[in-house]
Write a structure and sequence with these properties.
The protein has six helices and eight strands, in the order βββαβααβαββαβα. The chain is of the alpha/beta class. An eight-stranded mixed beta sheet has the order 1-2-4-3-5-6-7-8, sandwiched between helices.
């Protein structure tokens, strides 16, 4: 764990994983699901580091973790999304850039996906964004402020983030001239999380084939935009 400064000068803790050769390595800020900074989101950071990226996961819940859905819903409800995007996440991007990463992407899952969409328009320092099955209320998305490429992975059978909303978000990005790539998968919510079905929530289902394809596309996108 490390501590970095937000743009407003406040401090926040984060989980940092460095690659084998960190010098001049590009960075990826990883945004948690609604459960918090748990072992699964740390595993994502470790996967990115193994591929050569400096991975930083801000602790948005300030040390709190949810084990049950009602706890996660409560913690997410208490989170100021605007502050998280413009301060916690922007500060994480700035930290990676100030410590050696010339280019930095932001990626997030579920709640983190929604925050990634917001960050795409509120963090001018980021160089790319990768969204995993999550978007904020569309009235909060000003597509004209999104200047860098976005890759997004969506589940066609998502009970939390309806695919019709994905279509509406895509139309907003198209009209604003955003460089985006929306990929849709025959899967349920949280299809890339191997622990999904352990949560005993039927709307969540791990899909190994979809996850593998989404990660392949993610690494190709990162290579093309952060090299």
């Amino acid at each position: 764990m490390i501590t970095y400064q937000r743009p407003d000068g406040k401090s926040i803790d984060a989980y940092l994983v460095e690659p084998a050769n960190p010098d001049n390595a590009p960075g990826v800020v990883v945004i948690q699901e609604w459960w918090g900074l748990d072992d699964e989101i740390k595993r994502v950071a470790q996967t990115l580091a193994a591929a050569g990226y400096r991975a930083l996961v801000p602790d948005l819940y300030r040390g709190k973790l949810a084990l049950e859905a009602n706890e996660a819903e409560h913690l997410m409800g208490d989170l100021d999304f605007g502050d998280a995007a413009s301060q916690d996440i922007r500060g994480a991007v700035q930290h990676l850039k100030s410590t050696g990463s010339a280019k930095v992407a932001v990626t997030g899952f579920c709640m983190g996906g929604a925050l990634t969409v917001l960050s795409a328009g509120n963090v001018p320092e980021l160089d790319a964004s990768i969204v995993w099955y999550g978007y904020p209320p569309l009235e909060y998305v000003d597509a004209s402020t999104i200047k860098k490429p976005m890759l997004a992975h969506w589940a066609l059978h998502d009970d939390f983030f309806n695919i019709a909303g994905v279509d509406q978000l895509e139309e907003k990005l198209r009209l604003a001239g955003v460089s985006y790539d929306f990929q849709r998968y025959d899967a349920k919510h949280a299809f890339a999380n191997p622990k999904s079905e352990q949560r005993n929530m039927p709307p969540l289902q791990y899909n190994p084939a979809a996850a593998e394809l989404a990660w392949k596309r993610t690494f190709e996108f990162l290579k093309n935009n952060l090299a």
